[in-house]
Design goal:
It is a single chain. This protein is of the alpha+beta class. The chain has a single domain, classed as Ribosomal protein L7/L12, C-terminal domain/Adaptor protein ClpS (Ribosomal Protein L30, Chain: A, 2-Layer Sandwich). 42% of the residues lie in helices and 21% in strands. It has a 3-stranded antiparallel beta sheet with strand order 2-1-3. α1 packs across α2. The longest helix is centred in the last third of the chain and has 17 residues. The chain starts with 20 loop residues before the first strand and ends with a strand. The structure holds L-tyrosinamide.
Length: 101
């Protein structure tokens, strides 16, 4: 009495699936000032100045750099807000998203 019979529970499936994740990617360009890229990373992605500097330099040297990984809605909205922040100031700065493997 009181004991749960788990002998036939081997085929139970989890009820919730893990959400698909997306990378936000910072693309290098020849025109956006370095300091501006850092400002966007600090404001939208809540990075410290040091972290923002390293990510900005990685994008500059490698052509692009993964900034962070989020669920789809959050990745889309952060990439849009960050790209818009550049546009509003006349910079061609672009953030894209890609599915995480
Ligand atoms: N390459 C830009 C410059 O030399 C700076 C920059 C770095 C722009 C990273 C975008 O993702 C970027 N002014």
């Amino acid at each position: 009495m009181g004991d749960l019979d788990t002998r036939n529970n081997t085929d139970t499936k989890p009820k919730t699936k893990r959400p698909k994740l997306f990378k936000v990617i910072l693309e290098n360009d020849d025109y956006t000032p370095r300091e501006f890229v850092m400002r966007v990373l600090m404001k939208i992605f809540r990075m410290s100045e040091e972290e923002a500097y390293h990510k900005m330099m990685a994008a500059q040297q490698q052509g692009s750099c993964v900034i962070s990984i989020y669920t789809k809605d959050i990745a889309e909205s952060k990439a849009r807000d960050a790209t818009d922040m550049g546009k509003e100031c006349g910079h061609p700065l672009v953030f894209n998203i890609e599915p995480e493997d």
